[in-house]
Write a structure and sequence with these properties.
The complex is a heterodimer of chains A (111) and B (126). Chain A contains no helices and ten strands. The mean pLDDT of chain A is 96. In chain A, a hairpin with a 4-residue loop joins β6 and β7 (73-78). In chain A, 0% of the residues lie in helices and 43% in strands. In chain B, 0% of the residues lie in helices and 48% in strands. In chain B, strands 2, 4, 5, 6, 9, 10 and 11 form a seven-stranded mixed sheet that branches. A four-stranded antiparallel sheet of chain B has the order 1-3-8-7, with no helix packed on it. Chain B is globular. Classes of the chains: A mainly beta (111), B mainly beta (126). Chains A and B meet through β8 and β9 of A and β5 of B.
């Protein structure tokens, strides 16, 4: 089984840019798509990035995703931070033995 | 616009079976265009995938829960259900149902959830 490790929390000021990492413990990050979900307090998760770097309709282009094979990690970058971006963010991927694996989540605080 | 709504008891006794149903509106489970999934989140913790089902009845479960989980589908009622047996306090969580478009399925996984229910809290306690 592989794990996806995220920082427990990150914080940044409004208008700035923040990047949240998601490191895969085994297997190549590039072999299976990574998704990112946003979960605001008291709400269900919603997709902000799918298939590594694709944004669903309605998600602002301030949100972007990427993968880095050298560090075996994926990243979610949010630019022009707004207070409404304050939420928990989860990465998710899979492999042949584990159809769905979530990272532990990162709490984003917009100060 | 599709909507998913979880329903079921909010309190289950230890060692008993947790049973939840997800009712889908605004779309047909029988369309065959989606997989239908259960995901849970213990209070204050992260997300854990439980399993998913296709309208035909094909199922895929989280290996860590497989021995206790059954997911079934009732296309006549446009519902799918979760049963989790031998529950303990560790099974206390918000349980979500969610949808995965078939276009987001590889040979080994259906990997991108596009719609989620609002979730229902199930507490395991005597």
């Amino acid at each position: 089984n592989f794990m996806l490790t995220q920082p427990h929390s990150v914080s940044e000021s409004p208008g700035k840019t923040v990047t949240i990492s998601c490191t895969r413990s085994s297997g190549s990050i590039a072999s299976n798509y990574v998704q990112w979900y946003q979960q605001r307090p008291g709400s269900s998760p919603t997709t902000v990035i799918y298939e590594d770097n694709q944004r669903p309709s309605g998600v602002p282009d301030r949100f972007s995703g990427s993968i880095d094979s050298s560090s075996n990690s994926a990243s979610l970058t949010i630019s022009g931070l707004k207070t409404e971006d304050e939420a928990d963010y989860y990465c998710q991927s899979y492999d042949s033995s584990n159809p769905v694996v979530f990272g532990g989540g990162t709490k984003l605080t917009v100060l | 616009q599709v909507q998913l709504q979880e329903s079921g008891p909010g309190l289950v006794k230890p060692s008993q079976t947790l049973s939840l149903t997800c009712t889908v509106s605004g779309g047909s489970i029988s369309s065959g265009d989606y997989y239908w999934s259960w995901i849970r989140q213990p209070p204050g913790k992260g997300l854990e995938w439980i399993g998913y089902i296709y309208y035909s009845g094909s199922t895929y479960y989280n290996p860590s829960l497989k021995s206790r989980v059954t997911i079934s589908v009732d296309t006549s009622k446009n519902q799918f259900s979760l049963k989790l047996s031998s529950v303990t306090a560790a099974d206390t969580a918000v349980y979500y149902c969610a949808r995965v478009p078939l276009g987001y399925c590889s040979s080994t996984s259906c990997y991108a959830f596009d719609y989620w229910g609002q979730g229902t809290l199930v507490t395991v306690s005597s």
